[in-house]
Amino acid sequence: MSSKGWRGTTRFNPSGIKNFVKEYEHAPPANFLEGRGTQSGAHVDIMGNFALIEDITRIAAGATGDQLGGDHVYSDIFEWSQKIKLKL
Fold first, then answer.
1. Are the CB atoms for 41 and 26 separated by under 8 Å?
2. pTM exceeds 0.85 for this model
3. Phi and psi torsions of 72, nearest 5°
4. Source organism's superkingdom (predicted)?
5. CB 16 within 8 A of CB 9
6. Residue ranges of domains in the chain
7. Which residues, listed in sequence order, are joined to residue 10 by a DSSP beta bridge?
8. How would you class 36 by CB atoms within 10 Å of its CB: exposed for 0-12, middle for 13-18, buried for 19 or more?
9. Are 10 and 88 in contact (CB under 8 A)?
10. How far apart are CA 74 and CA 21, in angstroms?
11. Of 7, 25, 11, nearest to 65 (Cα)?
12. Cross-strand partners of 72
C-alpha cells in the first residue's frame, strides 16, 4: 500500500499525507549460535534490526520521513505495484 495505495491523494489517503517506503537489507547471522542477528531483514527477525530500532527512536524523537532519507528500497516494489489494477 505504501508504494501505491497511500501515495498522493487517493481514497485510501484522502488528505494526501506524505509516506515513504523503507526496506532493510537482509544480512543473516554468521552462525546458528548468534541467534536472530542485528541486521536481519527477515519477517520475524526484523524487530532486532539495529537500523529499524534507530529509525523508530528517531521517529519517536520527532524526525520526519525526509530526515530519515525518504524512500529506501532494495526490491522492485514500485514496479510490482504498477501491475496492480486498483481504482484509487
1. yes
2. no
3. -140, 100
4. Eukaryota
5. yes
6. 32-82
7. 13
8. middle
9. yes
10. 10
11. 7
12. 22
